[in-house]
Design brief:
Length: 427
């Protein structure tokens, strides 16, 4: 048993946290579920945890402090989720944030009030609910501004070491006004103040060295997105695809994936030579997906599953689809991203198809390690050729799957990355 003193805690400040089931929160769960529960506390948003996540996602065992609902702790949050976290009891702030998602006008009108009110709530929560002396460092998780900016101010005031965990780049991300302005102002300041900057791949590391110079290189540490072997540790059946063939995508869908998913849907709908289905498992509501051009059809099915169900679902697919989009408003994100689901796919024992721009780290990473069939241009015919090659050329697919296992073992194995994080956090 590892006994932790109060002054050995890490304060995690994140706008989005477990039990949210994808992206950064999923990686946070994978890592901190392996930490002693009294070694950290999470300061996060109550209203950013949607009902699906609250009921199907995994909660961490550490302390939760909700800056936008100081009366609720983790236990109460779980109980309230059964009633519906996103019921009419939601705050006005939460409703405005929902409106902002689909309207640049609402972003312009409410952007400043939303971001600054959250910064005030976070700093207020630290003052009222947290004995800052009991924390030895602050781990700030990248977001659209509130968590990062608040952490910067809290670190400056308290002199507690600031550690940045960059899942997605901040300046240069798709942050409508005023987020983009604030990122330009604060990113250089917080990078200068930070003791360490954690990134998820070499592409992001090189991106920031190019932006801020070689002097920042010593601060940057790479922690690859890990996943526990639980759920993936059982033997996978031999790859032997049979019709109807299944292409699978698991995870959230937003602007960074939507265009490429639509490309695949077009390719699947136009292929007549084989019996083919595209299955999507996502927490996104179908109404939202319909608005961005992703709909169910005879060949496309959309469902939802819990994190515990996903490994088996992935193992039953014939192709695992990993997309990043073209012509987005944040090419820097596309070029530096390592989707969290990549690690799942590497472990699933099924062939991977990457559909992402040639400039992206993901496409380069997949090509360099030969763990996926890569379609790095928007070409429906090439997608179709890739699908047919994967399910008919079994020797080729088996070699890809072996390379996937090797890539996972070399980079993404959880204990290697966990030890790196413990050293950074001095646990």
């Amino acid at each position: 048993i590892i006994l932790m003193m109060k002054n050995e805690k890490t304060l995690i400040i994140s706008s989005y946290a477990p039990p949210i089931v994808s992206g950064g929160p999923k990686i946070l769960y994978n890592l901190f579920s392996q930490f002693p529960e009294n070694s950290y506390s999470i300061l996060t948003s109550f209203y950013n945890i949607d009902n699906v996540a609250a009921q199907k996602g995994n909660w961490l065992d550490g302390d939760y402090i909700f800056y936008d609902n100081l009366k609720v702790d983790r236990k109460k949050a779980i109980n309230q989720a059964r009633e519906d976290l996103n019921s009419e009891k939601n705050s006005l702030l939460s409703k405005i944030k929902f409106l902002m998602k689909g309207s640049s006008f609402f972003y312009f009108l409410f952007g400043f009030p939303i971001i600054f009110s959250q910064i005030l709530m976070i700093t207020r929560a630290v003052k009222r609910k947290i004995e800052i002396k009991s924390f030895k460092n602050i781990l700030a998780i990248s977001d659209y501004g509130p968590a990062l900016i608040s952490s910067y101010f809290i670190s400056k005031k308290t002199k507690k070491p600031l550690i940045l965990y960059i899942f997605d780049i901040y300046k240069g991300n798709f942050h409508p006004f005023p987020g983009n302005l604030l990122a330009s102002i604060f990113e250089p300041r917080m990078f200068k103040l930070a003791d360490k900057i954690i990134v998820t791949n070499e592409g992001t590391r090189d991106f920031y060295i190019e932006r801020y110079g070689e002097g920042i290189k010593g601060k940057i540490e790479i922690i690859y997105n890990p996943v526990p072997l639980e759920g993936y540790d059982k033997e996978v059946s031999q790859y032997d695809p049979k019709p109807p063939y299944t292409i699978l995508y698991t995870g959230s869908i937003y602007w960074a994936q939507a265009r490429s998913i639509r490309n695949l849907i077009k390719a699947v709908n136009e292929i007549d030579s084989i019996d083919l289905k595209f299955k999507i498992y996502t927490p996104n509501p179908k109404d939202y997906l319909r608005k961005i051009g992703i709909e169910e059809s005879e060949k496309v099915a959309i469902s939802i599953a819990s994190p515990k169900e996903i490994p088996q679902i992935q193992k039953e697919a014939d192709i695992l689809f990993l997309p990043l989009s073209w012509k987005t408003k944040s090419p820097g994100i596309i070029d530096t991203a390592t989707p969290g689901k990549l690690t799942d796919y590497l472990l699933a024992g099924r062939p991977i198809m990457v559909h992402a721009p040639e400039s992206s780290f993901l496409a380069k990473h997949a090509k360099g390690n030969a763990f996926a069939y890569v379609v790095d241009r928007e070409d429906t015919n090439e997608l179709q050729r890739g699908i047919i090659k994967i399910i008919t050329d079994l020797k080729y697919s088996e070699e890809m799957m072996e390379n996937a296992k090797k890539t996972f073992s070399e980079n993404y194995e959880i204990h290697k990355n966990l030890e790196k994080l413990k050293i950074i956090l001095k646990v």
